[in-house]
Structure formats: C-alpha cells, structure tokens
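[PROTEIN RECORD]
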Amino acid sequence: MPLLKRLAVRAAAALLVLAPGVLIGPSAAFAACPGVEGSLDPGPEPVQQTRLGLKRAFALATGAGVNVAVIDSGVAAHPVFGGKRVEGVDLVDKSRPGGGQGADCDLPSHGTGVAGIIGAQYAPSKSTYYGVAPAANLFSVRVWGEKKPSPDPGAADWLAEGVEWAVTNKMNVINMSITTTLDSPRLKEAVKRASEADIVVVVASGNSGDQQGKPEYPAAWAGEIDGLIAVAGVDAVTGERVSSSSSGPWVGVAAPGDNIVIPASTGEKFNLDKGTSFAAPFVAGTAALLRERFPDLSAKQIVRRIEETANHPAARRDDLVGYGEVNPYAALTADLPAEVTSQAAEPAAPPVLTADEYTRTRQWALAAVAIAAVLVALLMAGRFSVPRGNRRGWRGE
C-alpha cells in the first residue's frame, strides 16, 4: 500500500480535480502586481534552517509528491521556487481590494514568505536559502488581496472558501497563516471537512500575546478537530518564545517566528519578518516530509508524531509553546509506540484437533471421570466409617 499511496499522491499532483470555473496557472496580470521589494541577500545559511537541522532531514524525505495548499495572500514568482510561478487559484473577487490579479500576485509579501519557508527549492549551487520540504508541490490559494492585511468580518468566509478549494482539489497539507477572531460556523465546518478528507491542517496561533480571552480561529479548534495543529512562535536565534505569540490550551507546538528570512514578492531579494504567520509553515513543511516518509499515517497520527517528537518544555507541554519547538529530524526518525485502539480483541477460535488427538483427548477425559468416581466413592465410604469408628472408641490426634 505505501507504493500505491505514493503513486496516488503524485497522480493527484499532476491532475487536479478542479471545481467548475476554477482556473489553475500563472496570472496574466503578474507584471502589474505591485508587491514588496526585498532589501537583503540570504548571505550565509539562515539560522532558521540550521537551527532545525533540515539537511539531515533531507536524507530521509524532501516532501516529494505531497500537495501543500498555501491559503494566503498569493505566492509570487521568486528564484527560490526554481524560476517557476507557483500554481494556484485567485479566490479574491474583483469587487474586493486587490481582487482578480491572480494567484501569483502577493501585494503584502506574506504568502510568498510562507511558501518559501515550506518549499523553497534546495539548490546549494544557486542559493543558501531553502525550505523545509523543498520537493513538495506548492499551490497558492489566494484569499487576501489587500496590501496590509487587517481584521475583516469577511475573512472567515474567505478562509473557508480556501479550505473548501483545498479539499476539492485533494491537497495533503494545508497551511493557514491568516487568522480571524470570528468563531465562524462555515470556517469550522470547512476545517472539519478537511479533517474528514485526511488533510493535515496547520494554522498560526495568532499574535495577540497572552490575551487568552481572545482566541483566534481556526487555532482555537485544534483540541477538537483531528489533524488540526496550531503553532506558536519562538525566536530563530535564541529559541525564546516570542512575546506576541498567542497562547492557550490549543497550542500544539512552536517554531521559529522571529528573525525569519523570507523571499520578497518583488525582485530576487529577501526580508526579515516575524509572527506566528511564519512559524506555521515550518510545521506545514514538516508535515509534508512526514506524508512522504510515512504515507500510511493518518492526519491525526502525523500531528501526534509532530507533537511527541518536539523539543518539550520543562513541563512537557504548556500553553505558551505547546509540546515545544518542532524537530523535523526527530519526527522522521522516532520510533513511537502504536496508538492504543478502543476496539476489543476478537475471541480466539477453538483449536481444531486431528482424529488421533481427538481419540487421545477422549481417553484422557474418560480416565479422569473414572478417577473422580473412585475418589467420590472413597469419600462416601469414609463418611459412614467415621461415626462407626467413634462408636468403637477411635480418637483423633
């Protein structure tokens, strides 16, 4: 089955089941998209990559054949993607700001950074920058078109539409680095559908600090929907928790979320950024590695493996960083005990005896009955002998 599942995943990457009216491919309006220029060269290998030991992980998996949906602000063409535009869909209606400009238009340079962390190609001769799962199939699901994302009552519906697209188009992993404060039934139902479709859903925990009274979604549903994991942020240099990172009982793990190098959405350079938006894709990339290496594991089991192999805090788990900072190599190599099932064991079938075994068993049974009969007779004889002996003056010791 592992081979069949790999073939199925790769076939899905090559031939997506598209919803009516959805076009996949590069945008004709790309050249007119005024994204954000970069100001940095990647320089030496970024600390976020060395901190997680990604090169060790690449000997085991690179995310090959795994479809990852980046539900965000679009993913622009950048050299880290091998000179190719990331395929996808623009769900931003033309009536909305920035709408209708294509899946490869990223005005705030948010989705491009997220996608780079997940799946920038590993090409040491060309760049020191690479993603967690450099061979994964990235799909840009553009749901936000504004230059500077800000809370909007419609955001939950837009995110839901993105998740629905990912389910229809058979994604294996979803990354959502845009959150909403609205507890939306539609968005929750969409995430449940993704869970039922066995998709790993990775979401940012949010950037509201310690304000646990203001949960952000979908993160706050992580405890009740299988296959959903919320990610907090730690500093890529020090490993300390980022103070702006939202906390709560729904936090699953943490990942680098400050001092993060990301590709810019215009030009060939990079920028530094921060936030749980950029922590989540490290976990989404790890999920892609696991989906390649362990194709028979369910989304729920993938999430469990990520949590169990993280670098745990002193209390093993807390509301600030969950089970701790993600550890891709450990997730790929750990020998975890099998999950305990609630199903009772089937009763054992009775043994089947040969003719000779049946004869011997019957003879032993008859002999046992005869011996038992003799013992009963002796006991009965003793019962009548004791009173008679008492009358004759017998005494016990």
